[in-house]
TrEMBL record, chain A:
InterPro entries per the UniProt record, alphabetical: AAA+_ATPase (IPR003593), ABC_transporter-like_ATP-bd (IPR003439), ABC_transporter-like_CS (IPR017871), P-loop_NTPase (IPR027417)
Gene Ontology molecular functions: ATP binding; ATP hydrolysis activity
Name the record gives this protein: ABC transporter domain-containing protein
A Gene Ontology cellular-component term: plasma membrane
UniProtKB/TrEMBL annotation, chain B:
Domain ABC transmembrane type-2: 18-243
Species, as recorded: Candidatus Doudnabacteria bacterium RIFCSPHIGHO2_02_FULL_46_11
PANTHER family to which the protein is assigned, alphabetical: DOXORUBICIN RESISTANCE ABC TRANSPORTER PERMEASE PROTEIN DRRC-RELATED, TRANSPORT PERMEASE PROTEIN
GO molecular function annotation: ABC-type transporter activity
Pfam families for the chain: ABC2_membrane
Stated name of the protein: Transport permease protein
UniProt similarity note: Belongs to the ABC-2 integral membrane protein family.
Keywords: Cell membrane, Membrane, Transmembrane, Transmembrane helix, Transport
Length: 304, 246
């Protein structure tokens, strides 16, 4: 069952085309990720769905409601974590959760909710006195006061240290198990691969590919990536003609060959370098991951 | 009416040390300071301290209304607090009602506390009724809250807030009969002064506490504040926004 349907969505900020005609649909109960670099249009897309931003063209249906018109009704059904958000100072966490529940005309067991995000010990602390990871967990708790059908998480782990990040990942998995649909944005490949049932790769305001992590990886022609650095100069063209090689790119002095036949490619590569008295180092062969998928479809890395 | 939001807003104000300092500690220190400095000075036929105490109380109501609202709202906008609220079904009217109701209550408490300190510590002679004082305090508080929202609407950032706020507050402190009487000032200065909202507030408070006037006696000042309230509310509605959608 579809819980979100986005069709032909457009949004410009003056001359900047933030979102350029995207379409996607989210199934009930899945974690849907939008993966892309900063400035890809992820946040703008989410803000339109959340009723915080206008769309220029397009249609958005969330839980059967027209999300571009019935924003107030949609807000009651969804939970939202914004990318740069804060909460009232001088209110304790329990007070904040009770207050947020009042916006939905509902009551919440604040202590129980804090326990779900492992913050019961901070129940009477102020938001400003929490660590970065704790703040993020609290904001997830605040987004759940109304038992939302859909949870929007905008870069839920950006800026967190690896340990805090894993903590939030576990929390998101637990929320998914309760049947809540989650739509999240991220520019961490690992996060998308680990959490998401399906991923939309977004770049320059467009969705370039949608699929499960496995489908995305399988969609690449090349099944293997050979990476190495070379002591002597090698022209990309010389590598491209090696048997099996589908694509060549050079990044920070490291070559990446996408190949369908790793054995043949490697054999030829090593033979050539032996004959020309060259030395290859940091040699590595791996199956393509989402980073490679991203590069394949967008022509650049996630960090650019 | 969202009582949870009203009570939460009230808690936030009471727990804010800066507001506490500027609305209570600072005016009390000023009163004591002026009492020591001008113990035997007379002005307009009354003791200077009796003249200046209602002035200070009125000024405190103004500061609490204008600066507290303008700063808090600007900060909440900048930090993303307001944006997070907009992602909930909370209505703007709920937010505004909570701000106004909780701050008017705080202002009344502030007026009573300051006058009590004046009576108990500085042997200030209170000649009027507390009820009349409270009614005037409520009127003044409404006027300066509306002004606070105007400042919040005009100032586009936290940094701009004190600039815009002081541009409005300073003339009121100088021309509002707070610390000194303008009886010997040029006529045009007096004319401007007579229509300032702070003048209406301070004059009516002074008449009530010093001369024991009733609310009927100060109906002119109350009417003046009511007019300001309507005008400022209108401007506030036109200028103030939560910065909702782009």
């Amino acid at each position: 069952m579809l819980i979100i349907e986005v069709k032909n969505l457009h949004k410009n900020y003056g001359n900047v085309k933030a979102v350029q005609g995207i379409d996607f649909a989210v199934e009930k109960g899945e974690i849907f990720g939008i993966l892309g670099p900063n400035g890809a249009g992820k946040t703008t897309t989410l803000e339109i769905l959340e009723g915080l931003n206008y769309a220029d063209v397009g249609s958005v249906t969330i839980v059967g409601l027209d999300a571009l018109k019935q924003t107030q009704a949609v807000k009651k059904k969804i939970g939202v974590q914004l990318q740069s958000e804060a909460f009232f100072e001088n209110l304790q966490l329990v007070e904040l959760l009770d207050l947020f529940a009042s916006f939905y005309r509902t009551k919440v067991n604040a202590l129980e909710l804090l326990e779900k995000v492992d913050l019961q010990e901070k129940a009477y602390a102020y938001y400003a006195n929490l660590s970065g990871g704790q703040q993020r967990r609290f904001s997830i708790a605040a987004s759940m006061v109304n038992n939302p059908e859909v949870l929007f998480l905008d870069e839920p782990t950006t800026g967190l240290d690896p340990q805090a990040r894993r903590y939030v990942w576990e929390l998101i998995k637990r929320i998914k198990q309760t049947g809540t649909t989650i739509i999240l944005t991220t520019h961490y490949m690992e996060e998308a691969q680990l959490l998401c049932n399906r991923i939309a790769i977004m770049d320059h305001g467009k969705i370039v590919k949608i699929g499960s992590p496995e489908e995305l990886i399988d969609s690449l022609l090349a099944r293997h990536i050979i990476s190495f650095s070379s002591d002597k100069y090698i022209a990309n063209e010389d590598l491209r003609i090696i048997y099996g090689v589908k694509n060549v790119r050079k990044e920070n002095g490291t070559f990446h060959l996408e190949t369908e036949d790793p054995n043949a490619t490697l054999y030829r590569l090593l033979q050539d370098s032996y004959n020309s008295k060259n030395n290859l180092s940091n040699l590595d062969i791996h199956r393509p991951n989402l980073e490679d998928v991203f590069i394949f479809y967008t022509g650049h890395t996630l960090r650019e | 009416m969202n009582w949870n939001l009203i009570i939460s807003t009230f808690k936030m104000i009471v727990r804010d040390k800066q507001t506490l300092y500027f609305s209570l500690v600072f005016p009390v220190l000023m009163m004591v300071f002026l009492k020591v400095l001008f113990a035997n000075t007379m002005i307009n036929g009354v003791n200077y301290i009796d003249f200046v105490i209602p002035g200070l109380v009125g000024m405190s109501v103004m500061q609490l209304g204008v600066f507290a609202v303008a700063f808090v709202v600007a900060q909440q906008k900048e930090k993303g607090i307001i944006r997070r609220l907009l992602a909930t079904p909370m209505r703007a009217s709920e937010f505004l009602a909570a701000q106004v109701i909780s701050r008017v209550v705080i202002s009344v408490m502030q007026v009573l506390l300051l006058i009590s300190v004046a009576i108990l510590v500085l042997s200030f002679a209170m000649n009027g009724s507390f009820l009349a004082l409270i009614v005037i305090g409520i009127f003044g508080s409404f006027v300066f809250l509306a002004l606070g929202f105007v400042v919040a609407g005009l100032a586009k950032s936290v940094e701009a807030t004190p600039v815009v706020g002081n541009m409005i507050i300073f003339p009121m402190i100088f021309f509002g009969d707070i610390f000194f009487s303008l009886n010997n000032a040029p006529k045009w200065v007096q004319t401007i002064s007579d229509y300032l909202p702070i003048k209406y507030l301070v004059d009516s408070m002074r008449e009530v506490v010093v001369e024991g006037s009733s609310l009927i006696d100060v109906k002119g000042e109350i009417l003046g504040m009511a007019v300001w309230l309507v005008v400022l509310s209108f401007i506030a509605i036109k200028t103030f926004s939560f910065g909702t959608k782009k």
